[in-house]
Amino acid sequence: MSACPGGEFLEDPETLPVDGPVDCLIIGGVLLIGGSALALLLLIGAAVLFKPWLLFIDVRVDDDIPVVAAAPTTGTDTTAPDPAGSGGDSGPATTTSPSTPLPTQSAAGPALLSQGTFIDHEHPTSGTASIILQSDGSRLLAIEGLQTTNGPDVHVWLSAADVVEGVDGWYTAGSAERVDLGPIKGNQGNQVYPIPDDMDLDRFPTVDLWCVQFGVSFGAAQLSTTPS
């Protein structure tokens, strides 16, 4: 065992001969550079894994949301009243058609099946989630006015777990059955996602914005057949 000035010992003086202070400084410099390089590699690896810059980048989406037809309205009474001042039987009442057709929901138009409002989980989240039945029989998840935080590997799930408020609700979707509709398109704006034709919507009453990488919910919406 050989010692450098200052008390540093080298275990293998035959492979790393130390002839004086200059050699010790060179060896110390190599070790310092090697340690710095390792720390830099670890820092780069952590940055690639966690992608902290996404917290400061917003991605806005502006998909076309299908317009859901208004619910049918009640028609007006088309029975002609008894003429004022007739003073007697004026004969059978007659009916007339309204001059403007009454608005009705088109059988071929998009229909709203369920709807819910997002609540915060790990990140502040707001917006509306709707399940829409299209005229061709296909179904869409429409997210309107979304505001949440950008993050790594966030997916849009339809989950079998009910929404739970607070920290307890951050992780409930992770252990429940779900259908993954794909990566989120953006953390702001309007966006639509096709729903598989064979999916039973009754089994999945929740929309969850789930960060797969960290196993946590950014925000979630409980769907109801009565718009909230």
N- to C-terminal distance? 77 Å
Helical content stands at: 10-25%
Number of strands: 11
Largest sheet: 9 strands, mixed
* Low-confidence runs of at least 5 consecutive residues: 45-50, 71-106
Q: Structural class per helix/strand content?
A: alpha+beta
Shape: elongated
| Overall pLDDT | 77
Largest sheet: spatial strand order: 3-9-6-5-4-11-10-7-8
Number of separate helices = 1
Taken in chain order, the helices and strands follow as: EEHEEEEEEEEE
Please give the radius of gyration in angstroms: 33 Å
| Share in β-strands | 25-35%
What's the gist of this structure?
The protein has 228 residues and is of the alpha+beta class. It has one helix and eleven strands; from the N terminus they run E-E-H-E-E-E-E-E-E-E-E-E.
Task: Explain what you see.
The chain is α+β, with helices and mostly antiparallel strands. It has one helix and eleven strands, in the order ββαβββββββββ. It has a nine-stranded mixed beta sheet with strand order 3-9-6-5-4-11-10-7-8, with no helix packed on it. Strands 1-2 form a two-stranded antiparallel sheet. The longest helix has 30 residues, at 21-50. The chain is elongated, with a radius of gyration of 33 Å. It starts with a strand and ends in a 6-residue tail after the last strand. The model is unreliable at 45-50 and 71-106 (pLDDT under 50).
